[in-house]
Amino acid sequence: MPAYEQIKRYVLQRIAEGEWKAGGVIPSETELVKEFGVARMTVSRALRELTSERVLTRVQGSGTFVAPQHYESTVLEIRNIADEIAARGHRHSAHVLTLEPSDDPLAVDALGLSTGPIFHSRIVHSEEGEPIQYEDRYVNPKVFPHYLEQDFTVETPNHYMVRLAPIQRAEFRIYAQKPDAHVRRHLAMEIGEPCLMLWRRTWVGAAVATSVQLWHPASRFHLAGKV
Fold first, then answer.
1. pLDDT value at position 14?
2. pLDDT band at 19; cut points 50, 70, 90
3. I need a labelling partner for 147 at 20 to 30 A (CA). Which of 37, 62, 121, 196 fits?
4. Which of 85, 94, 154 is nearest to 124 (CA)?
5. What is the pLDDT of residue 36?
6. Who's near 6: CB < 8 A, 6+ residues apart?
7. Which domains does the chain have, with CATH numbers?
8. 166-170 contact pairs (CB < 8 A, 24+)
9. Residue 184 main-chain phi, psi, to 5 deg
10. Which parts of the sequence belong to the HTH gntR-type domain (predicted)?
11. Which of 31-35, 48-52, 73-77 has the highest mean pLDDT?
């Protein structure tokens, strides 16, 4: 296991065991460097990834804190939004807002890469003309080199990627939070209306294939599963 992943697991374990509580400051990068005997950039990467995953909050000049914790549930399968809508007997449509290369440093880290560019898409999915999902996705170009050439109004990113390379594993978190003005506008939501946001990262083989945020208006969408 890479050193930065070991540090991430160490931090997550301290939080899970209650040793580090929500709102509390964690050891500094310098302290973690000494404890693990690794380079500062290794510790920095681990903390940046945990920050992008909303486990930690970094405050300039003050340190790194444990973010407010959220309850988690289990998503049993990764389904294509178009298939879900079709199963209800309704019509799916997609509006592509962004399909371009990106050098976003947090997204590059989330994909386990050292440098960009990576691929970025933003798509609004609608059911019978009503928007129900805002998809903000980053993709590993080493896994899907032709991603930017696709027409995602015809085939969703999920369907395209699963068709080419089935997912080996995934991690996810679900949040209830207010969207920013951009997301709210594209989901035709009222100011102050909350979203269900699913953050998910998936692997193909040993490589992180994609990192995605899926925003859903809480008044028009719910998440469910069976065991």
1. 87
2. confident
3. 196
4. 94
5. 93
6. 36
7. 3-66 (1.10.10.10), 81-217 (3.40.1410.10)
8. 166/204, 167/78, 167/202, 167/203, 167/204, 167/209, 168/203, 168/204, 168/205, 169/202, 169/203, 170/78, 170/200, 170/201, 170/202, 170/203
9. -60, -40
10. 1-69
11. 31-35
Count how many residues are written for the chain: 227
Per-residue pLDDT at 111 exceeds 60: yes
* Separation between Cα atoms, residue 126 and residue 82, nearest integer Å: 9
Q: Are 104 and 177 in contact (CB under 8 A)?
A: no
Could you give phi then psi for residue 191, rounded to 5 degrees? -60, 130
Is residue 19 helix, strand or coil? coil
User: Which two tokens mark 138?
Assistant: 């980053």
Tokens of 63: 């340190």
Vertex 133 angle, CA 132 and 134, to 5°: 135
One-letter amino acid of 5: E
Give dist(CA 212, CA 200) in Å, integer.
5
One-letter amino acid of 17: E
